[in-house]
Specification:
Elements (H helix, E strand, L loop, with lengths): L5 E8 L3 E10 L2 E11 L3 E3 L2 E3 L2 H17 L5 E5 L5 E4 L20 H8 L2 H8 L8 H7 L4 H5 L2 E4 H10 L4 E2 H4 L14 H6 L10 E2 L4 E4 L2 H7 L6 E3 L5 H7 L8 E6 L2 E8 L6 H5 L3 E4 L5 E8 L2 H12 L6 H10 L20 H11 L8 H27 L5 E5 L6 H11 L3 E3 L4 H13 L6 H11 L3 E3 L5 H13 L8
Parallel strand pairs: 1-6, 9-10, 13-17, 17-18
Antiparallel strand pairs: 1-2, 2-3, 4-5, 7-8, 11-12, 13-14, 14-16, 15-16, 18-19
Length: 496
C-alpha cells in the first residue's frame, strides 16, 4: 500500500461474544477483517451472575496473536458494553469476577438510592435514564461487602482489559458517562454525588478521552501475542455505542441514529445535554460521545428479546435458525399483539416466548402462538419503540428528524429495518453492520494523523462502507395501521 496508511486492532467485546478486528486506513480506504471471534458466556455462581473476564481477556490475547500473524498492527483499542466493572486491591489484583448487569442483586436498590438522592437531583447532575443496573446502583448494592471495602480501584470492563494489556490505570470518558457518577455538564467525576453516596473518590481513576495514549503492551503480552514490543494502546470511545455512533455515516443535518444489537439505543447527537424535568420523566439519557458531543438517547431492550426466544426454542429442541424465523415472521399476520420491550419482565434471562405471551394476556391482547408470530410481535414492537423514542427525542431537543441511520447487527435484519421505516414514516439507512469496530479503528487512525475531524471520519465511512436504504410505505392505510398499533403499545414505566 503506497502513501500514508495504518493498521489497527479493535478488540470489540459484546454481551454474547467478543472479536478482534484488524482495520486498514488510508486516504479513501477503510476496511475491516475479523481475525478472531470468541464467546462471552456469563457464569452463574452462588452469589450471582458473573462475567468470565479471564476467558474474555484470553480471547483478546488470542485475537491479538492472530493480528500479529496477519502482519502486526500500529495500535490497539478496546471497547465493550457499559456499566459493569472490576475491583482491584492495593496491589492491582482483581478481587473477583465482575457482576453481570442482568444479575438480580440490584433489585430494589435504585429506589433506596433515590430516596437518599431525589430523582430530579440525580438527573440534574448525571443526566441518565433510570436503569436499575447503572454502576451507581451496583455500587450501592455492594455497600458493606468485604470486596468493596478491600477495593482501591474501580475499572470498567474495557479499562480493565487495557490495564491488563499495559499496566496503566484510567477511565475512558464515554463509558464513565454511563456510571451515574459523572457530571453531565462538566464531564468530570461528580464530587457532589460521590460525597452524598459515601463513595471514596479515590476509587475512580483519572479520566481519559478518545484518542489519548493509554500505554504500551507489557512484555508478557508482546511475548504471548508476537506483537512488537512497545506497540501502543490507544484510548478509543470504549463504550461500544459511542464507537458505533462515531461511525454513523451521517453527512447532512437531520439524522437520528439507532444502534441496534442486544440493545437498541435510539436518539440524537447533540452539542449539550438536555437536563429538563420533562426529559427525565420521558426516560432519556445524556451520554458523552467523542469530541464533547452528547448522545441523547433512550435505551430500549433490543434484539435481546429475539435472541432469548431463539435460545429458549433451541433448548426445547425446536428449530431456531434466524433466517427461517425471519421468513416466518415476514409471512405472519401484521399488526398483531405488541409488547413494550422495556417492561421489567423482559430484562432477565428466561423463557422469553412465554413472557411475551403472558404480557399479551395481561394487556388484553391475543397471545401469539406460532414462532413466526412471536418474532413478528418482537420486531413490530421494536419498530414502534424506535418510533416512540425518536419522536420524543426530537420534541425534547427541538430537532427535526429527516432520516434514521440504523447501525450494528440489527442492520442485517431487513425486516426490522423495513418495519422501522414504515412505523416512523422516515427513510432508514441500514449500515454499517460493523459500526462499533469501525469507530474504534477510526479513533485510532485519527490519533495517528490519518483522518481528520468527526465529519471527515463519517465521510470516509459513507464512501467506503455498504448501506441499504429502506423507504417507508406511502400508503394512508398502512400509516393508520401503525398509528393504531402505537396506541396499543403500553407506555414504558416513567422514571419515578
Amino acid at each position: 500500500m503506497s502513501g500514508p496508511h495504518g493498521v489497527f486492532a479493535a478488540a470489540d467485546l459484546g454481551a454474547t461474544s467478543g472479536r478482534v478486528m484488524v482495520g486498514r486506513v488510508a486516504p479513501g480506504l477503510l476496511d475491516l477483517t475479523e481475525v478472531h471471534r470468541f464467546p462471552n458466556t456469563p457464569v452463574p455462581l452462588p452469589d450471582g451472575l458473573r462475567w468470565d473476564v479471564l476467558a474474555l481477556f484470553g480471547g483478546v490475547l488470542d485475537g491479538l496473536r492472530a493480528a500479529a500473524r496477519a502482519g502486526g498492527v500500529d495500535s490497539i483499542g478496546v471497547d465493550s458494553w457499559a456499566v459493569d466493572y472490576g475491583l482491584l486491591d492495593a496491589d492491582g489484583t482483581l478481587l473477583g469476577p465482575p457482576f453481570h448487569y442482568r444479575d438480580r442483586r440490584t433489585d430494589g436498590v435504585a429506589e433506596k438510592v433515590r430516596r437518599k438522592l431525589g430523582p430530579a437531583e440525580l438527573y440534574r447532575v448525571n443526566g441518565l435514564q433510570h436503569l436499575p443496573f447503572n454502576t451507581v446502583y451496583q455500587l450501592a448494592a455492594a455497600a458493606g461487602t468485604s470486596q468493596l471495602r478491600s477495593a482501591r480501584t474501580l475499572l470498567l470492563i474495557p479499562d480493565l482489559m487495557v490495564h491488563w494489556l499495559t499496566g496503566t490505570v484510567g477511565t475512558e470518558e464515554t463509558n464513565a458517562s454511563t456510571t451515574g457518577l459523572l457530571d453531565a455538564r462538566t464531564g468530570t467525576w461528580s464530587t457532589e454525588l460521590l460525597g452524598r453516596l459515601a463513595l471514596d473518590p479515590d476509587l475512580l481513576p483519572a479520566l481519559r478521552s478518545p484518542g489519548d495514549p493509554a500505554g504500551e503492551l507489557l512484555p508478557y503480552v508482546s511475548e504471548f501475542t508476537g506483537l512488537a514490543a512497545g506497540t501502543p494502546v490507544t484510548t478509543v470511545a470504549s463504550h461500544d455505542t459511542a464507537s458505533a455512533v462515531a461511525a454513523v455515516p451521517a453527512t447532512a443535518p437531520g439524522a437520528a441514529f439507532v444502534s441496534c444489537g442486544t440493545w437498541s439505543l435510539a436518539g440524537l447527537e447533540l452539542d449539550a445535554p438536555v437536563l429538563t424535568e420533562e426529559s427525565r420523566a420521558a426516560g432519556f439519557t445524556n451520554e458523552r460521545g467523542i469530541d464533547g458531543t452528547v448522545r441523547y438517547l433512550r435505551n430500549i431492550m433490543g434484539l435481546w428479546l429475539l435472541e432469548e426466544c431463539r435460545r429458549t426454542w433451541a433448548a426445547q429442541g425446536l428449530p431456531a435458525g434466524l433466517d427461517d424465523l425471519l421468513a416466518d415472521a415476514a409471512r405472519a399476520e401484521p399488526f398483531g399483539p405488541v409488547v413494550d420491550p422495556d417492561a421489567p419482565e423482559f430484562l432477565a434471562p428466561g423463557d422469553m416466548p412465554e413472557r411475551i405471551r403472558a404480557y399479551c394476556r395481561r394487556t388484553g391482547q391475543p397471545a401469539p402462538t406460532s414462532r413466526g408470530a412471536v418474532v413478528r410481535c418482537v420486531l413490530e414492537s421494536l419498530a414502534l419503540a424506535h418510533r416512540r423514542a425518536l419522536r420524543r427525542a426530537g420534541e425534547l431537543a427541538d430537532r427535526e428528524i429527516t432520516r434514521i441511520h440504523l447501525v450494528g447487527g440489527g442492520a442485517r435484519n431487513e425486516l426490522l429495518c423495513r418495519l422501522t421505516a414504515d412505523a416512523t414514516g422516515l427513510p432508514v439507512v441500514a449500515g454499517p453492520v460493523e459500526a462499533t469496530a469501525l469507530g474504534n479503528v477510526l479513533v485510532q487512525a485519527r490519533a495517528a494523523g490519518l483522518v481528520g475531524d468527526l465529519a471527515s471520519m463519517r465521510a470516509l465511512v459513507a464512501r467506503t462502507q455498504p448501506t441499504r436504504r429502506h423507504v417507508p410505505q406511502n400508503d394512508p392505510a398502512a400509516r393508520a395501521a401503525w398509528d393504531a398499533a402505537a396506541a396499543r403499545l403500553e407506555p414504558s414505566p416513567r422514571n419515578p
